[in-house]
């Protein structure tokens, strides 16, 4: 790799997101496989590895304690940044969460990104004794405390500050949103913006729905630093579209039918419609690149966050897909891998 390649400023940072799911009941193996994905992504030059928090198991598992997981990932990697997309903030004590974040950030050499959101599972809220009707207010209240704690300020009582002393988190806090007002609210608070892989409850394509949200976020941004938008997208490259469908089609279809039960998607979707609703980019690398070049939000994104969920891939297939994303898909869109540390402000 030439010096020009390693020092060139990329068009966006490349990330991957895992929901830490597998097939069967061996969650220890599922967790080990997810850890290996972080090692592989680190070696491939991915800039950020993200995990999603789920207290209620999905199909094949889920990760209830993301900061414990990321502490282990920090020990196994050298340069990739480590983040949550998202931590369910209303179910956390924000001071206690700030302590976990500060510890992992210290252990990792300052590689942490913190993504938060309100979650959606009423069962999770019931288990933690929280009122789902107040999830928006709780998110705002807890985020204010979390920000103060990670800024090294006294929190809740005179003389108490989180230790170890946090690094600079002024541009490392992200907020997941599902509406234009939510995007403006994130900007008003100085959070980076996280956009989900699918826009639920809409008939139009996800990028058509989310582009006004991104525009509103940028319009509302009034901070001196550069605003950052993380765009999560389902990206699964394979030999061709038929091969891709063999790996992901059934899982995506089943997930869409489950989502219909909550009203997020219409009833009775076909596999093809389910793939559209989840905004899935799948097929050969050439097909995916061509489709991503038409993606309406990507030109505004500072971070492209690729994921395979709701498909549950075997480990070797997931590794191969990450390789194709890092070596063929992302470079064709203007990204360049680097072996340099992926600094927070890049």
From TrEMBL:
<dbReference type="Pfam" id="PF00296">
    <property type="entry name" value="Bac_luciferase"/>
</dbReference>
<dbReference type="InterPro" id="IPR011251">
    <property type="entry name" value="Luciferase-like_dom"/>
</dbReference>
<dbReference type="InterPro" id="IPR036661">
    <property type="entry name" value="Luciferase-like_sf"/>
</dbReference>
<feature type="domain" description="Luciferase-like">
    <location>
        <begin position="17"/>
        <end position="271"/>
    </location>
</feature>
<protein>
    <submittedName>
        <fullName>LLM class flavin-dependent oxidoreductase</fullName>
    </submittedName>
</protein>
<dbReference type="InterPro" id="IPR050766">
    <property type="entry name" value="Bact_Lucif_Oxidored"/>
</dbReference>
